[in-house]
Fold each of these.
Amino acid sequence: MTDQRPVHAAYIGILTPGSTSRMRAEWLKRLTPGWSWQWIDTDPPLLSTQRLWRSMAFRHQIGKAVGRINAEVSARVMGRHFDLAWVDKGVFLTPETNSRIRRASGLMVHFTPDMAFGANHSRHFEASLRYFDLVVTTKSFELPEYARRSEPDKILLTTQGFDPLVHFPQFGAGERRREVVFVGLAEPHRERCIASLLERNIVVRLAGRGWMGFLRRWGRHRRLVYEAEDSFGRDYAELFSRAWIGLGLISKRFPELHTTRTFEIPACGALLATERTRETTQFFSEDEALFFDDDAELATRVETAFQLDDAQLAALAGAGRARIAKDGRDYQKILAKILSSPQLKSLNYRFG
């Protein structure tokens, strides 16, 4: 409405290009034409400190890096007023800093795609929950933990998402490679999974950190291609766009039931191969993804899929992509739903 004063909002989080938090920040701006956004990037204060302090920050949320992040955020909100402050993955923000944001803000939201009370646990976040009008999680198994610490009507469950401007098919069927792509951190079960594919002479293209030990054992295998430690944004999307099958492997470090890859892979036009969980089997049917319960089943299902011609593979991959479009798994729809939630109703009449 043109007769309303502009909405002033702050986005506080990692703004490094290619990061999912940067994607969310950009979509929030697109969804709110006429709003005045201040972006406060928490990454430079972290990256400007020595490795020891970065490690202390991630492990214990203490030290110079944490101090610099909180000093930067506090300075940027001091003396300002925001109708909305959106904190994305605020594990390093202390209660004192969140209290300053609260005093400067009409409404305060926290969003995280990560665990909050197991892996990635932050005592600062736990002590700051009282400041938020809305806390958004993608982890259904953590809802009881949120409920023990916050009022139930302040908690919102959503899914992981993808950016439709980044994750889309970049190549046609004739340009796709008959290979399996995985991008992510090495974990023992992921190593075993990829080894099972190589043992069947299936081409695997791999990117991510922590794979040096695996590469020492398998690096000379003619079917293994290692790309790089880091692959983000459009480079990440291109890897899946060139492949027929993408591995949406779920971490075993905590009871994860789906991941960003669950939606990013089909968004790129590749066929998703993922473990059966109560969530992945709700998101897709057997005709829209390759489900497996163990490594042997995965290898067999991939072998069978690669016996299909390009048109048949394209139909399967297309069904998965159509499903996530129908169900609204992109950031545009996910964030629009959050902005329209009852907890933020004072902004709704101004929401574009």
Amino acid sequence: MNRLLVSAPFFFALLGARGSCARSTSGPELAGDWGGEHIGLVVSTRGATVEYDCAHGTIDEPLAPDGRGRFEARGTHTREHGGPVREGEAADTHPARYEGVVQGPAMALTVTLTDTVRAIGTYTLTCGDLPHVFKCL
């Protein structure tokens, strides 16, 4: 299967903002860009967008770690496939739970589909790092 390293718009958005994430001093949000092997996360005060190998997702609520750096949020996970998306093709989107822990510039993030209780995986991300994501062609 052919795969491409990082989708171009996502890659350039991260390049321009590299090193921009930081824990807010006015609240618990983790706004900024996070990258790791097989994942990229762009966090805003309202949620996040996620890029994975051959998939993407959303986190539809703020990431608000507790005093121990732990958080849980709901969102979506959409599987992708190689080749073109056919006209009228329904997206393979599932509700997902994102659970994580942040310690300094590092984040561990576990993704689970809530409709099938299927674990997608646990990822390690670093604040300001570029993602290493392969997109299906």
Amino acid sequence: MEDSFCIAEVNAMDAGRLTGVLRQCVAVDRWARELADGRPYADRDDLLARADELTASLTDEEIRHALDDHPRIGERAAAGSATAAMSASEQSGVDSAALADRLLAANAAYEDRFGHIYLVCASGRDGADLLADLAGRMGNDPVAELSVVRMELGKIARLRLERIVTA
């Protein structure tokens, strides 16, 4: 995981470096670039509020692109990827191989139904809870499900940004 930075460091950081750091939160160039371009931020809460606005403004295409950077629930990100350490921490509740296998099978059914991976903010949740959530979301229509994915992406982005930018 990238180091953490105080808001003064974020405000002073080279735009290219900051954009790269922010891409760890949401793998959408526009999101990271516009968040970097919004500087200076008065404080961390100001930055988080702008990040929430940008997440809400993501297009369906940008959301689908962001999904490409997320491992499936129960699957670990490739070592060395920009988000591998964060993803591993977020999915720490998926602790048994049997449960991970069930999640991977459920992911496959979800992907068949919706055409993209199942995304959920898994931090603090165990595998059984995630399986129940996934099963419940299978009843959504594709438009409603994309709305849920947007909200979950926002939760993940905020959690990651809170880890990177200290108070």
